[in-house]
Amino acid sequence: MKIVVLGAAAGGGLPQWNCGCVNCNDARAGRLRSSGQSSLAVSADGSHWSILNASPDIRQQMQDRPVLHPHGLRGSPVASVLVTNGDIDHIAGLLSLREQTPFDLFATAGIHEVLEGNRIFDALARDKVARRRVALDTPFALQGGLQAMLFAVPGKVPLFMEGETVDTGLIGEQTVGVRLSDGQSTAYYIPGCAHVPDDLLDRLSDADHLLFDGTLWDDDEMIRSGTGIKTGRRMGHIPISGDDGSLLRLAGLTAGKTYIHINNTNPVWREDSAERAEVARQGWQVAHDGLEIVL
Ligand code: MLT
Ligand code: MN
Ligand code: ZN
C-alpha cells in the first residue's frame, strides 16, 4: 500500500491567507515549506487511487503528483474519494472534481446528509459520481485491492453547521477515522479527533502505521498566539502535548506514527523547534506535502 500526503496542513493551510503568525510569514518568505490542506491519496496497485478528504487545494495537489494525472484525453486514476467529516477543508475540493468523470464518493450517511444539504454539491453529476453511504465498522472494497472501514471517533458537527451549543465529544457519523488494509498491512487515518478513548487505543493495536490529528501542539495555542479564541478541544482536536494529549495517549503504540492536519500556528512545523525534537523522540514524523509512506 502506498500513501501519499497531498496536504499536511489543517484548514487554512500554511500559509493561511489572512495570517501573519511567524510560521505563515516564514512560509510566505520561503523559509518554511508551505503546505496545502488536509488530504491523502492511497493505492494498493499503483493505478487505482483513492483520495481521502478533498481539500480546497486539490487542483494544485493533483497537479503536483504525476501519479494522479489523467490517462488519455479524459479520465483519472482517481477511482474514489472518501470524506471523514463535513468541514470545508475536507469537502470543498469535491467542487473541483466536477466535469463528468465518474468516481465513487464514500462517506457515512450523516456526512452525505451534509453534502445533500448544500446544493452546490449537486455540481457532481449523480449519474457519474456515485454517492456511496457506508455504515460504521463495516468493511468495503476500494478499487485496486484496498479494503476500507470507517469508524467513529470523538468529534463534532462541521464548523459551518455549529449551533449555539456544540457537543465536542460526539461519537457517531459526523467524524470518522479510516482503517485501510491491503490484506498484509494496515494503516489508520484520523485527521480529526477530540480525545483518545480506551476503545480507540484498542482498535489501533493492529496498526502498521497511524496518521493522526496533529492540529495543535498546545490546547490554548491559538488563544496564546492571538490567532483565535478557541481551544483545540473546542474545535474537536486533541492537542499533541499535555497530560491527556496525543503524544502521551498514543505512546504505547508501536506502529509508525505521522502527525497530519497540522495548524499553521503549530511549532512542530519548524524542524529546529524543541517541539519537533520532542515528537521525533516519541517516534513520530511530521507530515509534509508529497510525503510517501509505503507499507
Ligand atoms: C477544523 O478542522 O477544525 C476545520 O477544518 C475548521 C474549518 O473548517 O476551518
Ligand atoms: Mn479541518
Ligand atoms: Zn499562521
Question: Main traits of this protein?
Answer:
binds manganese (II) ion, seven-stranded mixed β-sheet, alpha/beta, binds D-malate, 295 residues, binds zinc ion, 8 helices, 23% strand
Mean pLDDT across the residues is 98
Radius of gyration equals 18 Å
Strands, count:
14
Bound molecules: D-malate, manganese (II) ion, zinc ion
Largest sheet: 7 strands, mixed
Span from first to last CA? Answer: 5 Å
Order of helices and strands: EHEEHEHEHEEEEEHEHHEHEE
β content, as a range? 15-25%
Helix/strand structural class? alpha/beta
Poorly predicted regions: none
What spatial form do the alpha-carbon principal axes imply?
globular
Strands side by side in the biggest sheet: 6-5-4-3-2-1-14
Residue share in helices? Answer: 10-25%
Report the total helices.
8
